[in-house]
Design brief:
By secondary structure, this protein is α+β, with helices and mostly antiparallel strands. It is built from three helices and seven strands, in the order E-E-E-E-E-E-H-H-E-H. Strands 1, 2, 3, 4, 5, 6 and 7 form a seven-stranded antiparallel sheet that branches. A hairpin with a 2-residue loop joins strand 3 and strand 4.
Length: 127
Amino acid sequence: MIDVKKYSRQTGSSAPKRVIKYTLFWCNSGRAEILIDENVFILEAAQTVTITSGQYHQLKSVEGELTALEFTLDFFCKNDSDIELIFHNGLFCHFGMNEMISVHQPSFFQKHLTSLKKRSAKNHISI
């Protein structure tokens, strides 16, 4: 359903992978290099990028701290009308046109990611 992972000061995974879940990468500090499909994204502090279910991605390096929020469609969509939220916005439905997003209130964003991590650990919500 939902999982929050932390990465810090490391080289990335050995090969790109395709997962059937949605992912939001948040750069807490420093910078991170992520390959999504055939494009390299370099996130700096207070930037995020999203990955649509089924896209290839590879964590190349993390020089600082990076958080990954991963979730399945059933977490996001509770009924048939909710599915339109995913397919009628550009956040998780961008078909290879991923964009980095600069967050202007990073403490607010970080607070909510931390809250999700605590709730997922407390309720043992995991993919």
